[in-house]
Design a protein that fits this description.
alpha+beta
């Protein structure tokens, strides 16, 4: 029986280093090779121990939320047979700059201890991040303890993973093959759809909802989304430094019409705020009013006459048809007398390089949740430390508005300490009034697979556990 699972992709795998896996596809592949201390299972439940053998235990002698420790699961091995030790875990976690910014890490016997620099009652969620994957560098390669490891002939376009013989379980799926099917010139996933129709693909979780509807003889799973499409205003650019200009442009965008570009049930996917529905139903109260937008831009005085718009490199769960949305933004800003030059990118590496440089006026992109904590989602988009740079990867730095606002920084800290509805409302009000960005649409997690694929349990974060699947005739 064929025990190879063939996964279809709309972008190539960019990097197998968990610290450099800046896109969803790379993160999905990395998750099959490396394991993290914990996995997120539900927003209101403790994380599931993986590399650790137990939940985090607070230090009774320290202030609440400031010191934790946990024992490392015994018997784990890297793919070359090296036994995993607490020292290995500490060395790997100390590579993760974002984690080091939060805590000091050390081995204490069979345990790993964390002393936090600021209180965090859900620090376990930080340890579910991709950058916390446990790695061992050996002979120029990164080894993992996960169920799969890269094959010798693996390439970014055809990434082949084989079973890790040292893993504690033997998956039914012996081999994973992730194949890149480039979208057509207009951004449509025609090649991937054709491959599915011809039986060349068994599984996919990157197809837009509208395109999935045409597939036959497959199983389809539609789950609440964990992502938001966003139009960012680069607040460092002279033409967009004035919040009145940004607010006027925001009013010219009809989020319902934008949703109709990608979704039949547009009302369900029109963004009402930054957080996707699985995290919050709160609204930012931003309304569409083209006439008022024209008046507001006239009142603002120095309007920009021409802006550049940096476009995400391909379809994303939150933005199935990026080119069409960019065309809508161009049309609407044209109604305000502002010309827009859409700048496409050659792939994710080119896109991330341009994002890091900050050389754009507008950016049409978005964010996919890394954890189930709304505070992490908001921090990644609004915190000043999340502004991308060549030294700060976008995988955890998505403040593409390059916005530095002291009151927002204080509000984010307060919300993390006490995630109340009132504090979230204050954040949303500040985003509406200052308008560094406009949330446009929500994404959805869509899984499509052949009938021979069994036991799929959709993940709330959209990344499946392929080792839990079974393949049947």
């Amino acid at each position: 029986m064929d025990k190879t699972l063939r996964v279809g992709l709309l972008s190539a795998v960019q990097n197998l280093d968990p610290l450099k896996a800046q896109d969803f596809v790379s993160a999905m592949v990395v998750a099959q090779i490396f394991e993290k201390p914990y996995l997120s299972r539900a927003a209101d439940q403790p994380s599931e121990p993986v590399v650790f053998a137990e939940p985090l235990e607070g230090d009774p002698d320290a202030a609440p939320g400031t010191a934790y420790s946990a024992a490392v699961r015994p018997g784990l091995e890297f793919s070359d047979g090296t036994a995993l030790t607490p020292e290995h875990v500490v060395a790997a976690l100390r590579r993760a700059g974002p984690l080091v910014e939060q805590a000091e890490i050390e081995a204490r016997g069979e345990r790993v201890a964390f002393r936090l620099k600021r209180p965090n009652a859900r620090f376990d969620l930080a340890l579910t991040q991709t950058y916390c994957s446990i790695t061992l560098e050996k002979d120029g390669r990164l080894l993992g303890t996960g169920p799969y490891m890269p094959a010798a002939d693996a390439t970014p376009e055809v990434m082949r993973l084989v079973r890790n013989p040292r893993h504690r379980r033997a998956p039914d799926v012996e081999e994973l093959v992730f194949t890149y099917y480039p979208p057509s010139d207009d951004g449509r996933p025609e090649r991937l759809l054709a491959a599915f129709g011809q039986g060349e693909v068994d599984f996919c979780n990157v197809l837009p909802r509208g395109d999935v509807s045409g597939l036959r003889e497959v199983r389809k799973h539609f789950e609440p989304g964990n992502s938001t499409a966003i139009l960012y205003f680069n607040t460092e650019r002279p033409g967009l430094a004035d919040r009145k200009v940004r607010a006027a442009i925001a009013r010219a965008l009809d989020r319902l019409e934008i949703s109709q570009i990608s979704y039949t049930n547009a009302l369900a996917f029109r963004a009402k705020g930054l957080l996707p529905p699985m995290m919050s139903a709160a609204s930012d109260e931003l309304t569409y009013d083209l006439d008022r937008a024209r008046e507001a831009l006239a009142e603002a005085g120095a309007r920009p006459r021409r802006l550049s718009l940096l476009l995400i490199f391909g379809p994303r769960p939150y933005l199935p048809h990026p080119r069409q949305v960019a065309e809508y933004v161009t049309k609407q800003l044209g109604e305000l007398g502002v010309a827009v030059d859409v700048e496409t990118t050659e792939g994710s590496a080119d896109y991330y390089r341009k994002v890091a440089s900050g050389d754009y006026d507008l950016a049409l992109a978005g964010w996919i949740a890394d954890t189930l904590d709304p505070a992490d989602f908001l921090d990644a988009i609004l915190a000043p430390h999340a502004i991308p740079s060549p030294d700060a990867p976008i995988s955890i730095h998505a403040n593409l508005a390059r916005w530095r606002h002291g009151p927002m920084t204080d509000a984010l800290v307060a919300y993390r300490a006490e995630p109340s509805d009132a504090r979230l409302a204050a954040i949303y009000e500040m985003v509406r009034d200052e308008t560094p960005l406009v949330p446009l649409t929500y994404g959805s997690n869509i899984y499509v697979h052949a009938w021979r694929v069994r036991n799929l349990e959709p993940s709330p974060l959209g990344i499946p556990d392929f080792a839990a699947l079974e393949l049947r005739d």
